[in-house]
Structures
1.
Amino acid sequence: MFSALAAYFNEKVHLTPQELELMESHCHYKKLPKKAFLLQEGEVCRFSAFVVSGCLRSYRLDDEGHEHTLKFVIKDWWIVDNESYSNGTPAQSNIQALEDSELMVLSKESFQLLLEQIPQLRPLVDRLQTNSFNASQQRIYKQISASPEERYKTFVNTYPDIFNRVPLHMVASYLGISRETLTRIRSHFAKSK
Amino acid sequence: MFSALAAYFNEKVHLTPQELELMESHCHYKKLPKKAFLLQEGEVCRFSAFVVSGCLRSYRLDDEGHEHTLKFVIKDWWIVDNESYSNGTPAQSNIQALEDSELMVLSKESFQLLLEQIPQLRPLVDRLQTNSFNASQQRIYKQISASPEERYKTFVNTYPDIFNRVPLHMVASYLGISRETLTRIRSHFAKSK
DNA sequence: CGATTCTTTGAAAACAGTCAATCTGTGTGG
DNA sequence: CCACACAGATTGACTGTTTTCAAAGAATCG
């Protein structure tokens, strides 16, 4: 299962067999059945995880106990609670498998060590972080500027591999609207075709 | 005016006189009168700017020509169009001075060079990026989970130095609500004290 | 099949947006 | 120094959208 992560990196940068071996020795494989948690609110997130297969989401609970979806991830994406990871503070989010999933997990220490030992990873990781930040800026812009319907369309177009794989009420909570409103948007949308 | 930037860095990491000199030689001072643009939509953002004094905002225009405020910045903050800067693509945002402002501007090339020449800057810059990313995650969470009133309160509490310095209709566009709604939230809020 | 989870529907109420008019404060030029 | 213009903020009436609540339908899974 490490091969998926190796393939991911090899597509972007050439790694020697020794480097791959080093990397493998620092990863560990984790299988998560549907509904299992990779991280729960209150824990410190000391790892990052690469999704080999399956589907997960991160979400937060508000004061009334309502769930708000922060992110969906599938194959070839990374998932982490960034704030907890970078500050060492208790996580405010939960990360849960929406399907049976396979992950390659890297501890923060291992990740740092690999970055030192394999300098070519540096620009790659920087690029991932930059893309991630830009995506979050786009999401903010959509959130403050677009109607629920436009946000839904953007979501479907931006993540076609995700939207038909996750429950609609979670999509609604990702878009910041109620599940009923999402239902109505969709039926309106279906008619207008 | 470089002294403000020097002080900013020196507070976080010790720099030798030579390093400071190198840095200074790569910065240039820019004065922006109120309403002037540091960056306009369509241009490529090839620099980052440190605010020495004054106040600026970045905003985007939607298809109907309405303004949506992405960010406010004051003294000791950095401002840049991240997507344009990192991808070299035309900016979708505008950066405009809300007051007469003074900036220290660093070209992308200079910034990269300084990072290579002064390795101690690396962790510092990483930390700034991380904080910036975490802040944007928090904003997304508030935007999808909280009511306009809660968002307003959070904004006022999080950025007390900004909210009483910028026009309210820009605060409204930052929060993703109309200026009239913000007025009503505020009057409601004032009564409830 | 029965239980759980997810989605849809309808009706009512709450909420936010729009439009148009008015008000307030600031600053500029006569 | 006043008057006017301008940008910004507020108000009210109205409209349209979204939420909420309750109930019922689908779909999925053991």
2.
Amino acid sequence: MIEIYLLEQLAAVAERGTLLKAAEALYLSQPALSRSMKKLETQLGVSLFDRDNSKITLNKTGQYAVEYARRILELDREMCEGVADFDRRQRTVSVGACAPFPLGELTPVIQERFVEMAVTTELADDGKLLSGLRNRVYQLVILHEMPEDKALFFQHYLEEKLFIVLPKAHPLSGRKSVSFDDLRGYKVLLGAAIGFWMDVCRRRLNAEDLLIQNSMEALNDLIEASSLPHFISDRIIERGFLSPDRVTIPIEDPDAKTTYYIACLNSEKKKYGAVFSAAREAVLRNR
Amino acid sequence: MIEIYLLEQLAAVAERGTLLKAAEALYLSQPALSRSMKKLETQLGVSLFDRDNSKITLNKTGQYAVEYARRILELDREMCEGVADFDRRQRTVSVGACAPFPLGELTPVIQERFVEMAVTTELADDGKLLSGLRNRVYQLVILHEMPEDKALFFQHYLEEKLFIVLPKAHPLSGRKSVSFDDLRGYKVLLGAAIGFWMDVCRRRLNAEDLLIQNSMEALNDLIEASSLPHFISDRIIERGFLSPDRVTIPIEDPDAKTTYYIACLNSEKKKYGAVFSAAREAVLRNR
DNA sequence: TCGGATTACGTGCACCGTAATGATC
DNA sequence: GATCATTACGGTGCACGTAATCCGA
């Protein structure tokens, strides 16, 4: 068998043209390279170079061998990275979600069950979540629609309902409830990382009225400092996030209410089943 | 970079299940293998085995690594054989022909021009010859029809004409010429290695009348010992192979006369051009 | 007690570098 | 006298083997 180091040296010689240049690149002496190339030739039982006593050049067979060498080296490199990557993936649970709230709820539940593992989380749309699940990019996903794929195991997770927070002086502040159509024409503050809610807002409101903030801090500062409306959900309200000098009004459209589902591959149901039930229990406990 | 010997050892461990068995198979001590596997793990930066203090088993990552190892080893093996094979092909000229006579003529011409190379010859039908030329199985071929492929370079080589040799007592022995139809019903001796002539005989004569001899000696012995008809060609007659106590009669069908062409790839015209003209010259000189 | 893995230690070979030589421009 | 390959010789790292230890059936 031909060892990798010989192939590396061959590839270097092929790339640099001379033993000297290749030796420099490999931090090796010319004699060492010279010997290696000879060794390679004896091991393969062929001559790879035309030797002109002061110049070696790859012959046809040599060029052919270099192609193999490159392929083997590439595969070897790929192995080093691939195995490390695989190992890392073995030790991480990737969770994708269509919205931040249920993701925030689920993460600690997972971390609790898989103490020794890393948990990575990501927001994405339902299409990417589903394909990611199939490609093993995600092990668990949170969707806002029931998946129809028979290869997936899923479970109802929780509901979330959207409210609008208005200053008391706002024209709509007296209403028992409002619709997205009522809100049209009013500027509204919202964060960028709100998952599929962004699609709802874009669909139901005017694009130019959406004051999207990339950072959570900027958003909170603006909410504090301005009298602009912003959204909030029942789940956040339950946590006690209510400002006393504003009114919080439910949004009546069906769009403003959603149901989340947790899903994983059927084949991994056994592994993540405990997470599913623990997640449900956590929801009930936190009420 | 991971060296091949480590991958070989990994593959052996994967195959045999224990270090001990693998070590025996590799003619190596267990400690050596134990160290190698540890080394592999440190080099890859992952653990490949579950160590149960008295038993090691590949973990998921280990199994994944083994897949890579097998692929790399396979490629390495393939290189060893592939390069040697390529080298051999560099040093051989393969000639395919549809008939033995022109092949016998051409071979010495090639050998003369490519002294340091091996010449291998083979009989095959025109279809195989043409595909073999494209696949580099043959460098030169002798056809009995003009090739239409534009990627091929070809040249008229020589003609060959078939005669029938009959004992003087044969009913047809008085004829100036005969046709295949005249010969139908008479047994006839012929060699197996006559290329496309065999197709002609099968097409124009009855299968049960063809007494095909695999060895040239058997054929000659039978010709000597029997009074059965056999074929001969003008080219052989020119060489003086005529038996005094038999009559040699030309076969009048167009099928009994053929024209041979030498062909090679256009891209190798330069390399074999000299062979083409030398072959023609040799034909003229031998008249 | 045996099968199987690991640790400890000494050894030899294979690969390396330095120096010298050869060859070509 | 550059540039580049090869030969000769001496050094060393590292992969190996032997011996000893540990652990579980």
